[in-house]
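Have a close read of this protein, sequence plus structure tokens, and explain what the tokens say about the fold. Thanks in advance:
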Amino acid sequence: MEHEVFVPVPADRLQQVLSDPEQVAGAVPGLQRDADGTASPLSGRLKVRVGGHTITYRGAARVAPRGDGSYAIEGEGVEVRGGGSVKLSLTVRLDPAEDGAGTQLVFSGTGAGEGRVTEASPQAVEGAVRRLLERFAEGLGRAAEPEPEPVTPEPEPVEAATVFETEVPPSFEETAEDVVDEVVVPPAEAAHARRTMIGRSAEEVDHAPPRGRYAPAPAAESLSTSATLRWAAPAAAVVLASAIVAGRALRRRR
């Protein structure tokens, strides 16, 4: 049989994938690889639907490059439930597209089978093989696609705080009020103040002028007035004496 599948990937990338058994195993649709780490990457179980039958095979495959740039694929498997078996020998040729936008994968080869697969018609078997090859080619194309470069997120812009959003420190008056509210008079001082006030009438307490260091300082205006009167009295006496002398002198002349 012969089958062609177009893959939108350059041929050189597909060659790198076909040269790596791990990536080839990842491209096989439905392959359940063996858990044993020593086994070949292309060994395990493969479930295939042929006509109205679903058959699971256990086997292995090998991929090797050829001198003309193509690749040889050899595989065989046995039924998990039953005594049937299959064997496949394929050649994969990579034909780059003229515009370089992709590659045409050309599959050619032969296959043979025994057991449950023979219960299906040749057309059903051929259709199952073509679907398997198409999905295999798509898997090779996905494996050959370059990994996207990590996108570094741009830092979010930091908005400057406006004058309405800036926290305003408390004013001096508010701070003073808080301090006054927190002042607590000790009980001993309060009791002493009450004892000091005993024996004085309410009128004396209300109208008695403050004494000692609590007496108010004299107003600046009263001090200046007293000083002015103290200097004005002698000056007035001098003026009066001068007027008397002048009056006597005028009377003598007459």
About this structure: The helical segments are 11-18, 21-27, 122-144, 172-182, 187-197, 202-207, 220-253. The chain has a mean pLDDT of 75. The two ends are 170 Å apart (CA to CA).
